[in-house]
Amino acid sequence: MWESLKRLYHRLGSPKWFFQISGRWLPYVLVLATALIGIGLIWGLMFAPEERLQGNSYRIMYIHVPAAIIAQSGYLILAIAGVVSLVWRMKMADWVARAVAPIGASFCLLAFVTGAVWGKPTWGVWFVLDARIISVMVLFFLYLGVISLQTVIDNPRQAANASAVLAIVGVVNIPIIKYSVEWWNTVHQPASISLAGKLSIAPTMFMPLVISILGFYLLFVGLILMRTRNHILESEYKTRWVADWLSQEGRA
Amino acid sequence: MDIETLGMHFSSFGEFLAMGGHAPYVWSSYAFMLVIVLWNVISALGQGRKVKQQISKRLAMQSHANESAMEKSL
Question: How many structural domains comprise chain A?
Answer without folding.
Answer: 1
